[in-house]
Task: structure prediction
Amino acid sequence: MSDHPSDGFPVAVQPVKTPLAPSAEMPKGACDSHVHMVDASGAFPLWKGRVEDPGPGDFETWLNRLDYHLTTLGLARVVIVHSILYGGDNRITLEAVRRLGPDRARGVALLPDDAPEAALDALAAAGVSGIRLNYVHGGMLSWEGVVAMAPRLAARGMHLQMLMAAPDHAEGLEEAVRKLPVPVVFDHIGWPDLAAGVDEPGFQALCRMVGDGHAYVKLSGLYRVCDAPYDQASAHVQALARANPERCLWGSDWPHLMLADAKLPDAGALLNAFLAAVPDEETRAQILVSNPDRLYGF
Result:
């Protein structure tokens, strides 16, 4: 596949070239806990079931862009979440983790329900800390597969990462999540209905799971639920941070794939929205450094 795909798929929008600088100095070891790695050269085969193609650029180009993204935002570490653009072929994520090195990067992979033990062993050895389930759009892994896989993940010190929509899913998942033998990490502040407020029952279920320590939540993806400057989501970010700052993470969701109706964000503006919502420096350090250190094993 060339840098300019011609197979009929829309091409992802390029991320902002130079993000805004953070409004405050980042604590040493700060982590972007949610980015994706892409490549449009054909070196890493794309999944036939994808809905878009990555933007132009080969692996080296995108790795350099990622490095610039992290450096500009003052972030030392990163978690690369495998993109569904590549289906269950995790090689692009594993190569990015390898190139960045164990002191700087970890990965989250995609696997099908019937993944063999050898696949889990290989991923764990390569720096993968978790397996992702998309409960909103579907994909490689089902909930039944998660329940069956969870003990195998626990045996390898891995976790489950999950995209769900709190108003639709959180109450129904709460009891089951508490029974899983692995940590569960919910993406994008649980994809709440901001208009329903923080007292919406599904969001309150998410707060309980986070508050009781049964789940982590990523304070990410604000641009997917509201427009810049993202202060509409501040109450939800603050509610989760209050529920349990030891179970919150921050991520940019760079390079902002599959935007759908969302507007392309500036990753620096997303970081500044987090800093505005969580002004306490000790809490920021907990979320940006201590929590990812513990969960991802940096």
